[in-house]
From TrEMBL:
<keyword id="KW-0274">FAD</keyword>
<keyword id="KW-0560">Oxidoreductase</keyword>
<dbReference type="InterPro" id="IPR045024">
    <property type="entry name" value="NDH-2"/>
</dbReference>
<keyword id="KW-0520">NAD</keyword>
<keyword id="KW-0285">Flavoprotein</keyword>
<comment type="similarity">
    <text>Belongs to the NADH dehydrogenase family.</text>
</comment>
<dbReference type="Pfam" id="PF07992">
    <property type="entry name" value="Pyr_redox_2"/>
</dbReference>
<protein>
    <recommendedName>
        <fullName>NADH:ubiquinone reductase (non-electrogenic)</fullName>
        <ecNumber>1.6.5.9</ecNumber>
    </recommendedName>
</protein>
<dbReference type="InterPro" id="IPR023753">
    <property type="entry name" value="FAD/NAD-binding_dom"/>
</dbReference>
<dbReference type="GO" id="GO:0050136">
    <property type="term" value="F:NADH dehydrogenase (quinone) (non-electrogenic) activity"/>
</dbReference>
<feature type="domain" description="FAD/NAD(P)-binding">
    <location>
        <begin position="5"/>
        <end position="271"/>
    </location>
</feature>
Amino acid sequence: MQDERVVILGGGFAGIAAKLVYPNAILVDERDFMVVTPRLVEVIEKNLPLSYALIHRKVDVKAKVLKVDFKEKKVITTEGEIKFDKLIIALGYEQDLSRIKGAENYGKGFTLENVEKIKSFKEGSIVTILGGGALGVELAGALRKRGHIVNLLEAENRLVPYLTPDFSKEVQKVLERQGVNVILRAKVEEVKENEVVTTQGRIRSDYVIFSAGFSGPKIVREMGLSNKNNRMLVDKFLRSVDYDFVYGAGDCANFRDGFIPQSAQVSLQAGEVAMNNAIKGEKVEFKPVQKAIVFKIGDDYIGLVKNTVISGPIAALIKSFAISSLEGKVKKVNKFVLAI
């Protein structure tokens, strides 16, 4: 099986993990760098250059994926066609603001392009963040530290609702202690100029940032793959439910019967399992594990390790180690670039 031609679409967390398992795989991505999202928040908080959040990452083929011909087993890109025997799709996520009235006109998605705009918000402005997940929580702390009046809205009855209730409570305490206005059970109905209309009333805002609305990339649907919210459906071995020679890993994939969390940790695990199953014919079940989760909220660090809430220097050390570990993996990938 090792002599098969394996192509990886996407050089994010899942893609680089897959490449490290099988360096002879062909890694395709339109960018030669990776974005470290937690560092994007730091770029905003500390007014750092955008390059601080980018890690240079080589790829075998620098090109945009246009479509995949599954019958002929070839990927069509802006740089030509690439044949494959096995395909791993790890194309990450996109943010869709179109579902909320007015969002595209009066809100800002959390994109690389919008980071500089967010940094330029006038000090003391009222900023409303929609989505109380990890990104929203860290972003709220960063903007509050920059002197903004910050509203953090979450549609559920607690922040980071996919984690333990105790952790949610502690995260909310940290934010409120820093002066963030946390509003729960607030579903957004419309975004207007200088106002957000929610089920909890109208909220005056100078700026609105979306830290929610993430889905798989549209190209997954365009490929004709079975999907949930543009996340391709896979079985417990991360095989596509449509083709047994195609695997999905990272934020662009979801279980047919169940849910795969969208996080860097889980994506790294998925890339490794998908590649092992693809090239070795193994049937290793993918069981996502969130080993440690740490948020940097302003100057505070708070984390969850084995359902135990931690904070302070230990949490900060874990956060730092996680990012350093990622950088190490990228450096290893850079040694395995092929001459295509």
